[in-house]
Predict the 3D structure of the following.
Amino acid sequence: MIIDPSQNDPRNTYQLLVGSVVPRPIAWVSTIASDGTLNVAPFSFFMGVTANPPTLAISTGLKRGVKKDTLLNVEQSGELVVNIVVEELGEQMNTTSGDFPPNVDEFQVAGLTPVPSKRVRPPRVAESPINIECVLKQVVYVGNEGSQSGLIIAEAVLWHIRDDLLTPQNTIDVAKLHAIGRLSGNWYTRTQDLYEITRPT
Ligand SMILES: Cc1cc2nc3c(=O)[nH]c(=O)nc-3n(C[C@H](O)[C@H](O)[C@H](O)COP(=O)(O)O)c2cc1C
């Protein structure tokens, strides 16, 4: 089968994209609106970009033709926290993806605990074992008129890591972390079936 996206309905192409780029890590992004309302939402179009300075990218699409609250808040405040989603937080993460108006605090809706961050105003999610405080570097708009995504490029300025997850070698114990990844539709993957491939010298 060969599919040319230029001949395809964009909704079908979206299905090709989310079914091909798997598994995707999930950035559970906390932000704060100009009126102080807290916001949390998951984004799996998410990646690390570079380590020096540590930089992350998150792509936010449109909701009914308008920017999502996360992008609006990030553009207005210049700050965000990326919280890592682990197995026991899957349901709460999913709850925060609901279509809530801007004045609704998803921390409250999902029963999450906001804890003050140290370098940025948006709070972090206490229940998440890794929180990355970030400041906005740039928003790059990608896509055709009417369906533009805002790619948030942000610098990580402070990491919070649950003590038991950091190894003596300063690595994160991913076997202990139990992060989940997004597949397509409502499917997710666990990160328990680990195996090693040694890099060539
Ligand atoms: C696991 C998961 C991953 C998601 N990834 C994205 C994404 O990468 N980009 C996006 O625009 N929406 C994504 N969504 C949908 C948003 O979370 C959803 O539109 C949410 O309501 C946005 O909230 P906000 O308006 O408060 O920013 C995802 C939803 C789920 C459940």
Summary: The pocket of flavin mononucleotide is lined by residues 26, 39, 41-45, 59-61, 63, 68-70, 94, 97, 99, 182 (CB under 6 Å).
